[in-house]
Amino acid sequence: MFASLTDSGVLLVFALVLPVSGMLLALLTGGRHARTVTLLILLANVVVVGGIVGGIWQTGQAVNYHLGGWSPPLGIELRADGLSGAMMAVTALVSLAAGLYAPPSFRFPKSQENRESRMSFVFWYLLSATVAAMNLVFLAQDLFTLYVALELVAFAGVPMVALSGSANTLLAALRYLIFALIGSIFYLLGAVLLYGLHGTLDISLLAGLVEPGPSLWLILAFMTVGLAAKTALFPLHIWLPPAHAGAPPAASALLSALVVKASFFLVIRLWFDLVPGLPAPSASQVLGAMGAGAILFGGVLALRQARLKLLIAYSTIAQLGYLFLAFPLAFGMGVETDGALTGGMFQAMAHAFAKASMFMAAGLIAEAIGHDRIADLGGLGRVLPVTCLAFGIAALSLIGVPPTGGFVAKWLLLEAAAISGQWWWAVLLILGGFLAGGYMFRVIMPALARDVTPPTLIAPVSRFREAVVLALALAALALGLFPEAPTELLALGRPQSLEILSP
Amino acid sequence: MTLEVLQWMPLIALVLPVSALLASCSVRVRRVLPHVLWLLPWPAVVAAIAGLNAGPLVISWLPNQPMFSIDPQGALLLGTSALLWSLAGFSLPAFFPTQPLGSRFCVFWVLTMIGSLGVFLAADIFSFLICYVLVSLPAYVLIVQENSQATKKVGTIYLGFALVGEGILIMAFVLLTTQAPEAGLRISELVAAMSQNPGNQLTIALLVLGFGMKMALVPLHVWMPLTYTAAPIPVAAVLSGAAVKAGLIGLLRFLPWEGGMEDWGSLLVGVGFVGAFFGVIVGVTQSNPKTILAYSSVSQMGFLAALIGMGLINSMMGVAVMAAFYAAHHVLLKGGLFFAVGLAGITKKYRMTLVLLPAGLLGLGLAGLPLTGGFIAKLAVKAPFGDGWPAVLATLSSAGTALLMTHFLIRLAKAEVSPNTSPKASRLQISWILLVLACVFAPWILLVQLGLGSLGEAFDVATIWKSLWPVVVGGAIALGLARRGRLLDTIPCGDILGLFNPLTKLASVLGRGSERTDWFLRQWPMACLSFLLLVVILTIAACW
Question: Is a pLDDT exceeding 90 seen at residue B8?
Fold first, then answer.
């Protein structure tokens, strides 16, 4: 058993080294070959993550690795439990899909005069960087390494917003940067205070040391708010729509599907791993209320957008709100329900696939017909059937229509609400579904319309890119058709209460 | 047939439509699809016949895996619905003479068909939910065939109702499973567990609300007249005949029949009879035959709800089969009447009697015209209403139906004939004749098969008289009203739709408010302040 653990333990290091070496290799080979290198690295990353998930699945326990053989108080531990494994798998697949989708948008210029190839190089570089940073977020176990990981995520995310270099996107990137900075500072403040109080940064050690009291709650509040800003939780969401709507489609997909989930994952780590025994019911209700604000506010604003990419961006705000319902549903009534965490994480996974598919589909639409005005999408289904099919499936998952991944997530959250008797969150979940139905059908209905002259195609659509978009949507559907395995995986290797509560 | 084969029947029923759907990924198959639509539901007809007398046939692989079963109530609705889907599919070309059927239309037709047949077979909540979604959402595409502002609005209303109903049902199902975590996913076991649970009132309320929306119980009926008026005739036929029965089978499967449901029963009886008469009253003021038929559906679904309510009050398990029997007749009949509207549009004036006579037989049959199929259906459901005021109301509703149906016939006779007849009209005529025959004769056979009544009773003079006079009275009133013609078009289609206007106003106010809030939060001072405020609020809340 020890041997098999260390085997997959080494894989954890690979999961970090691979994307980083991808970045270095891309630097060496330059823009001309950055694409090939990155795609190979992303493919290898899928294999490595597959090995890690397989290890967790086989042993039923977390996989861990102590860097340099030093155990936590002195050294750094990498650890992958079910949550990390699942998120890493989603990251690997979505980033690979983005990599496969992206090439036509970031082609290396062929002409001799125009040697400017910033976009064609930087995108691939940032893609590897995002994967490296995300993997570190999922694997690191101490607050400082996590801080570094968070910064890396932001450093990879901000330039992605500004890839096109236009004034609007620069402004959006700057706003994002400032929010990310304030968030980092809040988080760092909390981490430093915790170190000052307890002399360690390791999460599992801290979990045994922290005691409830105003100081701990203040620390936790700072860290949570900082992370919430990076996740664009209402009312700190205002940087997200221009940033995600302005980026190139492949980048938008990464930002919306993955990058915002990194900071959410840390909030989960804090609340479920650092202070699991000390539930703060009212504080979790506050988090839930922010989530509720996001769902309602994001939904209503998505209904009022005139452009497709902005609609999708506002829908991201609403969908991120569901993630934070996991907190009141898990801790709200003093009883911990394990379904809430699973539901929240399931939502994160399903949303990642669906939203990535949706942003990429929007990208294809915009390229094919030259605009993304919702009012002029009538009859689109006839000229871009596969893209519209993918968009439709992704939309059904976001609405939460069975049998999609989004439905399973909502079902788990609703179940937790019913068990803990918090009916108000159940009402909100259902209401959010109606809003999502409203804004999604705003796009789907005209696309399906008959007897409308469809928009003229100004550019052909690549079959391969359509297939990538459809594959992502089908992944969101598959999560709903086969929910057992991911649900089980999420619960594996969890240290405390979750396993006690499950039958 | 051996039991082995019979066990597979629930799956065999769906095998053709599902494989057609999967195969339609290929363009070549999609091109053939319009021609084979009528073939796809036939295995379901076979399965229904096999399942009618074989007792519940269950198929499942593993615990917590999809489960399908056929029981008598399911078999009745499955067989008739499949027949209607097939005939409607066969007649489709007659309705779209100028342009060939789009393959997308056909794919959504198949999707809706799978859902419509699947709800009668699903034995676990997730299969049921998926089929329920399929019978609700894809139908949108079938309804919105005409590109007009009005049709789009109707489509939106239809989708809104479908989504809201879906959400309510999901909540109800979540409550069902959490209240009885050990019961698994089987509908029958969950319902049995629920009836023992004292805290089940909310669950039942949600179930009645959700399925009531699909059945168009008043006041949740608004979508139905709008939808059937806007949809093409064959679509309206399958929706009003087959698809609405998804709500009915939901009520039959999910409500506990063992007792303790007196209050809910009374509520259903009340709501049901209100709907039964409301449909008639509003229906008589309509001039479009399709709208009249839609209001007749509202009325009939109300009658069925009242029937179920009576069964719940008296905890009569047998009422489930009776209701399914009555509804199965309605499946064929409503489909047939919509076909009549289609035929009337392409039949020359001098041959109109050929349409009107059978249509009259069907329509007045619904009211219980002696010796028709409808007469048998009414006969089978007589017992639950007892002898008191419910029986009086039931008789009055028969008179109401006769009134509405006579009004329908009058309007049908005045229908405009389109100048160019469809080249494929013969397909419609064949389907129509088959449906009329099925409507008139199938109930007789099924009545004996299921043992719901005896032929001796059907030929009893007293019974015939009791069933005849409401038809005569209702018909006479309708003729009298038609002579005056003052009522026509006094109530708009979708009657109480206006009540929703404040909601749309509220929505736009909320939307503008949200936009203003977004702008406010976007200001830097406000953004920075919200960081600090949130920290303070979180800390205070945690220390609480």
Answer: no
Residue A266 and residue A203 in contact, taking contact as beta carbons nearer than 8 Å: no
A214 interaction partners in chain B (CB closer than 8 Å): 539, 543
CA B244 from chain centre, in angstroms, equals 1
Q: Indicate yes or no: CB of B531 within 8 angstroms of CB of A283.
A: no
Name the pairing type of β-strands B67-70 and B57-60.
Answer: antiparallel
What local confidence, expressed as pLDDT, does residue A278 receive?
A: 65
The three state secondary structure string of A123-169 is HHHHHHHHHHHHHHHHHECEHHHHHHHHHHHHHHHHHHHCCCCCHHH
- Whether A500 shows a pLDDT value over 50: the answer reads no
Residue A495 has a pLDDT of 62
Picking from A280, A400, A426, the nearest residue to B542 by CB comes out as A280
In this prediction the ipTM stands at 0.91
Residues of chain B contacting residue A238, judged by C-beta atoms under 8 Å apart:
518, 521-522, 527
A500 compared with A79, residue with greater pLDDT: A79
Minimal Cα distance from A415: which residue of B? B174
The minimum CA-CA distance between B288 and chain A, rounded to whole Å, is 24
User: CA B54, CA A342: separation in Å to the nearest integer?
Assistant: 42
Tokens of B216: 């168009």
User: Is it the case that residue B416 has pLDDT exceeding 80?
Assistant: no
In this complex, the residue of A282, A290, A426 whose CB is nearest that of residue B544 is A282
- Residue A281, pLDDT score: 81
Alpha-carbon dihedral sign for residues B232, B237, B240, B243: negative
Residue A111 has pLDDT above 80, yes or no: no
Return the pLDDT at B61. 61
Quick check: bond before A249 cis, omega within 30? no
Question: What is d(CA A81, CA A79) in angstroms, rounded to the nearest whole number?
Answer: 6
The predicted pLDDT at position A186 comes to: 95
- d(CA A369, CA A380) in angstroms, rounded, equals 9
The answer to whether A121 and A147 are in contact (CB under 8 A) is: no
Q: Please report residues of A whose CB lies closer than 8 A to that of B144.
A: 445, 448-450
A410–B170 CB contact, under 8 Å: yes
CA separation for the pair B335, B300 (Å, rounded): 14
Q: Give B499 or A321, the one with higher predicted confidence.
A: A321
Residues of B in contact with A171 (CB under 8 A): none
Could you tell me which residue, A500 or B317, shows the higher pLDDT? Answer: B317
Task: Give the other-Cβ count within 10 Å of A278's Cβ.
Answer: 17
Query: CA of B169: which chain A residue's CA is closest?
Result: A430
CB atoms under 10 Å from CB of A156, counted, come to: 24
Q: Which amino acid is at B528?
A: C
Task: Determine the residue among A222, A377, A401 to mutate to test chain B binding: the one whose Cβ has the most chain B Cβ atoms within 10 Å.
Answer: A401
Q: Do B144 and A450 touch (CB under 8 A)?
A: yes
DSSP B25: T
**Could you say which of B140, B145, B521 has the minimum Cβ distance to residue A238?**
B521
- Is residue B203 within 8 A of residue B175, CB to CB? The reply is yes
pLDDT class of A83 with cuts at 50, 70, 90: very high
Are the beta carbons of A401 and B137 separated by less than 8 Å? yes
Residue A90 tokens read as: 């989603």
Chain pair A-B, CB pairs under 8 angstroms: 137
Using CA atoms, how far residue B231 sits from A108, B143, B440, in Å, is 52, 4, 27
In this structure, the strands spanning B67-70 and A63-66 are: unpaired
The three-class DSSP label of residue A376 is helix
B99: alpha, beta or left, given left = phi > 0 and alpha = psi -120 to 50?
beta
Per-residue pLDDT tens over the stretch B131-171: 999 999 999 999 988 778 888 889 999 999 999 999 999 99
Q: What is the mean pLDDT of residues A399-410?
A: 92
